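Chapter review: from sequence to fold.
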Amino acid sequence: MIIQALAFYVFAFVAVAAGVMVIASRNPVHSVLFLILAFFNSAALFVLLGAEFLAMILVVVYVGAVAVLFLFVVMMLDINFAALRQGFLQYLPIGALIGIVLLAELVFVFASWTFSPDVAAVIAAPTPAAAQVSNTHALGRLIYTHYVYLFQAAGLILLVAMVGAIVLTLRHREGVRRQSIARQVARRREDSIEVVKVPSGSGI
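The token string follows.
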């Protein structure tokens, strides 16, 4: 029990520190690497909680796909971050105003937080044994019943992020031949094939 508690505090501390470094690092590549470290420690916390399926999904999907995609996109953009930081003081008042508004909204939400009158009945409701329901079954039933709209919204957000990444990395350069589906479909046989009749015994 002491080893599990020690492992929990170690993984939690590293995850929080990596999350802070994601937003504190000046180099965006380092930020993505710290994000991968945070994902790994979060997966370790899921393993300690007994949710092996969530830990595997976190490592396979987020570390193996999303974080690596972020890393490649950041390395391909070739953005001059020094030039972007020059207008930081210009937009600082607007950013501070938006931050204050969001902070006020959070304070308002937490100040008006109340417990539902049915919370006692929900807590006292019998839960099935852990051996009868697997992690995958419980997670799927929870996502596709109570949180189905939030799940669809998350899918739309990821779709918008993917389209944005494609738009940012798509570059039109002169002298580079690109595939044109419309031109390929509109091609005729007469424009592509030339039949040459060569007399017997002579070359072209």
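Two observations follow directly from the output. The chain has ten helices and no strands. Residues 134-166 form one domain.
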